[in-house]
Each structure stands twice: as structure tokens, then as C-alpha cells.
Amino acid sequence: MSVNLPGLIRHKQRSGNWTWYARVKGQKSRKIALGVDPDHPEFMERYTRARNGKRPEIPREEDKAIPQSLSWLIAKFEKSMQERVRAGAMHPGTLKQRSAFYDRLRAPYGDKHMEMPRSKIIEIRDSMIATPGAADNMVKALRALYAWSVENGFVRSNPASGIGKINRGTGATPWSIDDLRAFKDHHSKGSMAHLALTLFMFTACRISDVVILGRQHEIERGGITYLDWQPAKKGSARVTVPILPPLADAIAAQKVVGSTYLLNGHGKPFASAAAFGNWFRDRVREAGLDGRSPHGIRKAAGELMALQGATQYHIMAVHGHTQAKTSEGYTRGVNRQRLAAEAMQKMASMEW
Questions:
Q1: Could you read off the pLDDT of 59-107 as tens digits, one per residue?
Q2: Which of 69, 225, 247, 282 would suit a FRET pair with 84, their CA atoms being 20 to 30 Å apart?
């Protein structure tokens, strides 16, 4: 659509798309983004408002949605989550993950009544069986939506409560000794990849923490240097672990020093855990490994600690767990293995 209006200008973004602006009358240096293209039905109204120095009245998601619809309810919950993120009561990643699942629901179910029947949630879960982890996370996101809705009086009950998981796997595959050796053989000491592996092994931290750890987290106690940090995952206990010689050597071997231990190819901290995750997956493939993730290193660290005699309470302190059952998975099989070996040893002197 060709337009020629006073004060109307457009700017080409890096993506190739155009953004339209209108200069405010009498203020040549001030311009207001219209947010829509000329063929949009609200274009002229927004242009007129902008020329008069008023920003476009962009309706909120909850105002655009049908009252008491699923989209309406989701918009209210997202607004609440945004407020919690700003207050530091929720991790931004939680909001991002849940919103991604809600976006998948808006088109097919957004205009339906907000009280989704339990059978429909099960149907949605089962339709995603090809990706069982995502299917279970969809149910988890809906369970959170309705738990908040019940608490705030929008619905009477939580239809997602009690719906079981379809992903019965044990999660990330723990790295074996051979996996760790293969990675170290390919990425020698001094490389950023080697430091990343060493950080994971000797702190057992999550990917959300490894990208922020740096010298500002080092503390001295009794002549020993520790790493001390509060994990990003909500509900985690604070972690304080000594910097053992292998980790100290890996840190000292780095030629580029920044505000975090791990730096990207430009010598800057990684923009996010996701950006680091993409980078680390490439380093894993370079080492000839497949299906290995940072969380698998965390699991390997837990199992190796258990093999060295650590109890689940030792592992709790390192992993930041606040419930013993969370760390019990690392010790259960190892303890049975140790007990079996001790029992058989008692039979070694038996006359047969």
C-alpha cells in the first residue's frame, strides 16, 4: 500500500521488516512508533494520535480476549507471573517456558470457556506423545495455571491435578568415565570447553548457574578457597563448595579473564543459559559424543560422589537439594552395590 502522509516515516529493521513512525507536530525530533502497517485497519487512527503526541492505545491481551475464555484466563495469569518476575519471586525462564506452552493452546482453544475439562487436558497430553517430555510439561503448565486460578477465585477446581506423566524415562543420561575422557581428550586444558566440563564436574551446578559463576563467587575460609552461590532454580539451597585442584588449574589455565569464568568466542559472558547450551552441544559433537547434556554431567558427579562413599546428605549439600529424596536417586543403586559387595566379602572365608 502506497501512502504519503505528513510526518510519516519508515525504518527498515535488520530482519528486513519495516517499522512505521509518525513525527509529532511541532516536534521534529520526536517520533512515535505506530506498531502496524498502512494496510492495518487501525493505521490511520494510530497515525492521527501519534501526530498529536499520543501513543497508540494498544489493548492488553486480556482485554482483547473473550471474557471468561481460556485466552482471557491465560492473559491474567501471565500478567501475574510478569509481576512476580519483576519482584524476583519467579525465574524469567519459568515465565518463558510456560508462555510457550500457552501460545500453543491459544489458537485451537483460546476462545473456549476457561474451565477446560480434565478429559481435554488428557487428550492434549496424549496428542503430544511423540515428545513425552514436552507433553508432561504442557500438563505441568496447565496445572500451574489452574492452581493460580483456583487460588484467585476464577475457577472452582484444578482439572490438571493428578494427571500422570507419560515420560517414564530417567532423564538425562549420566556421562560415563569414557565419555568424560573422550571430551577431555578432544578439548585440552586451557580451552573454554575443558573449563566448562571441569566446572560441571567439580561444582555439580546447573546450566543456569554455570553461566554466571565467576571470581566474584570465590570466598576464603580457613585458608581454603570456596565457590559460594545461590542457585537460580527456585527452592534450591545455597551452595558452598571448595575449589579443588583440578578446577583451580582449569581456571588458572584460561588466557582470557572476564566477569564470569565461561566466555563466548568474543570474550564476553554468554547471553543466556540457552546460548551456552547451544555452544556446549557443538563442543560435545566435536568430541564424538551423542545424546550427552550438561545435566548428565551433574548426574555423573552425583553418582561418582556416591561411589566414593558420599551419602545422600553430602550430595544434597553440593547439588543444592532441600529434600533427601531428590538426592537419594544417586545413592540408591550405589549403596545396594556396596552392601552386596560387603555381604559377599563376609562369605569369602566360608568353608564350602
A1: 555 556 789 999 999 999 999 999 998 888 888 888 989 999 999 998 8
A2: 69
pTM of the model: 0.52
CA trace torsion 268, 271, 274, 280 (10° rounding): 0
Beta-carbon neighbour count of residue 47 at 10 Å?
A: 23
Which triple of cell numbers denotes residue 100?
510457550
Query: 3-state SS of the chain?
Result: CCCCCCCEEEEECCCCCEEEEEEECCEEEEEEECCCCCCCCCHHHHHHHHHCCCCCCCCCHHHHCCCCEHHHHHHHHHHHHHHHHHCCCCCHHHHHHHHHHHHHHHHHHCCCECCCCHHHHHHHHHHCCCCHHHHHHHHHHHHHHHHHHHHCCCCCCCCCCCCCCCCCCCCCCCCCHHHHHHHHHHCCCCCHHHHHHHHHHHHCCCHHHHCCCCHHHEEEECCEEEEEECCCCCCCCCEEEECCHHHHHHHHCCCCCCCCCCECCCCCECCCHHHHHHHHHHHHHHCCCCCCCHHHHHHHHHHHHHHCCCCHHHHHHHHCCCCHHHHHHHHHHHHHHHHHHHHHHHCCCCCC
Overall fold of domain 177-341: hpI Integrase; Chain A (1.10.443)
What is the per-residue pLDDT across 171-202, written as a single tens digit (0 to 9) for each?
Answer: 677 778 788 889 989 999 999 999 998 898 88
Domain spans in the chain, listed from the N-terminal domain onward: 8-58, 62-151, 177-341
